[in-house]
Amino acid sequence: MLSHANRITRGADYKATVRRGARFTGANTVTYVRPGSDPDVVRFGFIVGKTVGIANRRNLVRRRLKAAAYELLPQLPPGMDVVIRALPASAHAEWATLHEEMSRSISRITSRGNLRS
To answer: Could you tell me which PROSITE patterns the record lists for this protein (predicted)?
Structure first.
C-alpha cells in the first residue's frame, strides 16, 4: 500500500498534473506525469470514474492500480507527480495488464524527458 507521503491528496495537485503534465494514453488508462512540488518523493493519484462500472468494480480497479503503483515506486525518479485515469476498458483488465501498461507509459514519458512543470 502506498504511504501517505506517496499519495496526491489535494484537488489542486490532481488538476495541475492533468492539465500541465505529459500524457500517455493506453488501452485501459491515461497516465499524466509532471514534476511534483516535493523533489524527494514520488506521488500517485488515481481517477476512476463511474464509466468504469458500479462501485465494487471501481474499487477493484483502484486497488489494482494502487498495487501496481506500489511496485513501480522504486523505479521512478523522485520528485514526480503521477495521475492515472482509468478508462472503461480497465473494468475487465487483469492486474498484470494494468501493471504492464502503467510501467510502459511511465517509462515512455520519463524517457522522453519532456516533463513540463
So the answer is: RIBONUCLEASE_P
